[in-house]
Amino acid sequence: MNSKYTKIVVLIFMIGCSAIAELSAQQDAMYSQYMFNTQAINPAYAGSKDGLSAALISRNQWVGFEGAPNTTSFSVHAPLLGNRVGIGLSYVQDKIGPSKISFMNLDLSARIKVHSKGYLAAGIKAGIDNQEVNLSLLSPSQQEDIYTKDYTSNFKSNFGAGLFYYTDKYYVGLSSPRIIRNAIKSSSDNVNDIKKSERHYFFIGGYVMDLNPDLKFKPSYLVKYVEGAPMSFDLTAAVMIKNKIVAGVAMREGDSFGGVLQLRVADQLWFGYAYDYTTSRLHGYNSGTHEILVAFDLGFSKNHIVKSPRFF
C-alpha cells in the first residue's frame, strides 16, 4: 500500500468511519484555548462581561496530515437591560477530510445575583446546522456506489441550553449546545441516512488564584462527553504575569500536550497562540497543531475599559 492510500486508511480511522458506517464519534471541534471560547459551547456565557466581547479562533490541527481538521470559530456577545440578560452570536466551521460542518447560532441568557460576588446564568442557543460529506474525495479509484455520493444535512434548525456560574475569580458551566440529532442524507437519495449528529455535553471550570500582586495562577478544565465515544478531558495550568502575559501548559488525555501563550497588547485586546504535540496513534503522521486567538473587550463606560476585567 503506497503512502497516499495509507493516509486515506488512517483518515477513515481518524474520523471514526462516520462517512461509511453508523458509528458514533466526536463531531464538535476541539480547542486548546477553550477558556476564551466558552460561548461556542455554552449560551449562558453570553453577556457575562461588562461590555461587548468578541473572540476569533483559528485552529490548524495535525499539520502535514492530508485531510486533517481545520476549524474557525467566531463569537460576540454583550449584556443588556442592566446586565440582567445577555445576547450574542456564534459561528463555527469545522473541516475534516471530505466533511464540512457549520454551526450558526443566536445565544440568549438571563442571570441572577446569587450573592455579593457570584452570578448564575441560564442560556439557550438557537440556530442552524449544516453538515456536508463528499466521499468521492476519499479515494477516486473506489468503484463502490457510496464513494460517488455527496451527503448533506440541508441547513437544519437546532437548539441548545446551558448553565454558567461565575465570580471574578472562578467559574463552572454545564451545557449541551446542540440537542437535536440531525441526520446527514445522500443528496440524491432521500432515504439513505449515513449518520446522525450526536449530542455533546460539556462541563467547564476554572480559577484565578492570586500568588502575589503581579502573579496569578490559572488552572482550568474542560470535560466533553459524546454518546458512543470516550470521554474527553482537557486540563490547563497557566500563570499570569502583571495581568498582561499568560503562559502555561495544556493536556488532552490520550490525545496531546502542549503550551499556551497569550499577550494582552492593549486594555481591550488579547492575542494568543497554542501548540499541541500529538500523543495518540496519529503522532507519526503529523507535526502538531497550531491555534491562534484574537479576543477583544470593549467596555460600555466613557473610556471603553471593562470595569471588572475577568480572564475567562
Proportion of helical residues: under 10%
* Biggest beta sheet attributes: 14 strands, antiparallel, barrel
Strand content: over 45%
Q: Runs with pLDDT <50, length 5+? A: 1-26
What is the subunit organization of this protein?
single chain
What is the CA-CA span between the terminal residues? 48 Å
CATH topology: Porin
The pLDDT mean sits at 82
Helix-strand sequence? HHEEEEEEEEEEEEEEEEEE
**How would you classify the helix and strand content by structural class?**
mainly beta
Q: What shape does the CA trace take?
A: globular
User: Which radius of gyration do the C-alpha atoms yield?
Assistant: 20 Å
Which second-level CATH architecture applies?
Beta Barrel
For the record, the CATH class is Mainly Beta
Determine the number of helices (DSSP H or I, runs of at least 4 residues): 2
- Annotated CATH homologous superfamily: monomeric porin ompg
- Please count the beta strands (DSSP E, at least 2 residues each): 18
Q: How do the strands line up in the largest sheet?
A: 1-2-3-4-5-7-8-11-13-14-15-16-17-18
Tally of structural domains: 1
